[in-house]
Amino acid sequence: MHELQIASDLMNAVLEAVKEHPNASRVEKVDLSIGRLSFVGDEQLRFCWGAITDECKLLKGCKLDISEEEVEISCRSCGYIGEMDVSEDPMYHFLLPVFACPECGGEVDITRGKGVTISNVRLMIDDGVEG
User: What is the DSSP letter of 71?
Assistant: First the structure.
C-alpha cells in the first residue's frame, strides 16, 4: 500500500512547512492535488493520514481536501499537447504502462498528472492573547 508512504511523506512536508509559523497551534486542512497516473486511492490515503497523524498534536483531526489532476502529454513526434484519457488497469500495479499519442501513435512525455502536490495548508495561529 503506497498510500501509507505517501501519507508519511505528506506529514513530514506539512510539519516542515509549519516550522515557518512558530505560533501555529494546529493544522486544520491540507489541500492536495493527486495526478490520475499516481493511482493513489483517495480513501486509502485519508485512512493512512488519519492513522499516522492521530498522535500528533498539530495534525490530529486535520482534513485532507483532495482534487484530481488530469493527465497531460506532449508528443515527441507530432507535437500534440493535451489531455489523455487514462483508466485504472490492475496490470498497472505490476507492469509499467506504455502510452502513445492519440493523434499519431508516437512516444509521449507525461507533463502533468503523475504526482501528489500540496497546494495549501490551513493553520490555526495562536496570537498569544489570553481570554
Answer: P
